[in-house]
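> forwarded from #structure-qc
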């Protein structure tokens, strides 16, 4: 499990960097695509690449993929929560304009201030950007709530926890985009993130329906961790 997770993390860092460079045009030189330590990350690039690498490794080792995916899902969501706090501290992935009491303003050398300057909403002499939704904190709190739900979820059928993660996370990201100040539609009214979120929700629904109707011949009273231990997925 540890090796599978490390492989997924490394692939996720590269995937997040690649999508950030390819889609958002950050440091478009192809030689910079592997420089994940330079920032310019895109969450879905990391998630897709991480899931792909994780799945390939688990299948290569002939281990139960859905049981491993279930076990890893809460940690992935917790990582998203921590990452969004980093986004808030860095002033990127900022929100739309807001006059709410908890709205925030960002200083120079942040994406929020730079965008507001390009929109002629602020001048170089202004110390802070305009007030915006702290959408990064919204996302962090949402991810923390999802982490608690997934960590406490028990099911006799492997795959339901992972399906729940895909459905709820995708729905949250779909709604989050409505509060993003850097929203950019590319597929009709949808941003790339919203399109990928819909794909994630549909994938989660598909996995949920298949797993729910699959007969695992599970002894009554056993919960998922116990089943996983019996099949060797936690050893």
């Amino acid at each position: 499990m540890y090796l599978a997770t490390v492989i997924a993390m490394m692939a996720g860092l590269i995937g997040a960097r690649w999508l950030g460079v390819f889609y958002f045009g950050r440091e478009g030189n192809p030689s910079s695509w592997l420089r994940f330590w330079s920032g310019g990350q895109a969450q879905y690039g990391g998630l897709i690449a991480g899931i792909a690498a994780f799945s390939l490794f688990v299948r290569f080792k002939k281990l139960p993929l859905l049981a491993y995916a279930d076990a890893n899902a809460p940690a992935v969501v917790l990582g998203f929560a921590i990452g969004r706090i980093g986004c808030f501290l860095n002033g990127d992935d900022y929100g739309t304009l807001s006059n709410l009491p908890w709205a925030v303003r960002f200083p120079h050398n942040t994406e929020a201030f730079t965008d507001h300057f390009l929109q002629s909403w602020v001048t170089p002499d202004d110390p802070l950007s305009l007030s915006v939704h702290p959408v990064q904190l919204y996302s962090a709190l949402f991810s923390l709530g999802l982490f608690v739900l997934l960590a406490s979820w028990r099911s006799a059928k492997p795959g339901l926890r992972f399906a729940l993660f895909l459905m709820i996370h995708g729905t949250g990201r779909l709604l989050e985009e409505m509060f993003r100040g850097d929203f950019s539609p590319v597929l009709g009214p949808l941003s790339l993130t919203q399109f990928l979120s819909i794909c994630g929700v549909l994938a989660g629904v598909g996995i949920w329906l298949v797993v729910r109707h699959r007969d695992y011949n599970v002894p009554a009273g056993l919960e998922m961790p116990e089943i996983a231990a019996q099949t060797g997925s936690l050893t």
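QC bot note: The chain has a mean pLDDT of 84. The radius of gyration is 20 Å.
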